[in-house]
Design brief:
Oligomer: single chain
Number of strands: 6
Order of helices and strands: HHEEHEEEE
Largest sheet: 6 strands, mixed
Radius of gyration: 14 Å
Helix content: 25-40%
Strand order of the largest sheet: 2-1-6-5-4-3
Shape: globular
């Protein structure tokens, strides 16, 4: 991600660290690492593919995407909006080697272990490259 990690806001910094860890896992072709950034009962809407519930289904989705040769995700036009005292909503545009789209709404929230994870994810593939 191009944005600097926030030093002055620990909740935002943890959320930014979460998306950075997801991006690193994806770009390393590590579907389990991607799934680890989601809370256990997260619902992910991946337009136009469908809705995936729970970490296991989300990991299978990302493994399928990786197996098809998708890689090198990058985020632009990233915005972070506070959500309660323990989370942020991320919106952005994204590109990969073979596709591009938008993140409509990712809710990153601090979990019991102190790490931020996705508690909901809504993104869209808008085209192929």
């Amino acid at each position: 991600m191009s944005e600097q990690i926030s030093d002055s806001n620990p909740v935002l910094a943890k959320c930014q660290a979460g998306i950075s860890a997801w991006q690193q896992a994806f770009n390393s072709q590590d579907a389990a690492g991607c799934a680890a950034q989601y809370a256990e009962d997260t619902v992910m809407e991946a337009r136009p593919f469908g809705i995936f519930k729970g970490r296991e289904a989300i990991q299978a989705f990302w493994q399928n995407i990786i197996d098809q040769g998708f890689k090198d995700v990058n985020y632009t036009n990233v915005t972070w909006e506070p959500k309660g005292d323990d989370g942020y909503i991320l919106t952005s545009s994204w590109t990969m080697n073979k596709a591009f789209g938008v993140v409509h709404r990712e809710h990153w929230q601090i979990q019991a272990d102190g790490l931020a994870r996705l508690v909901s994810d809504d993104f869209e593939v808008q085209g192929e490259r």
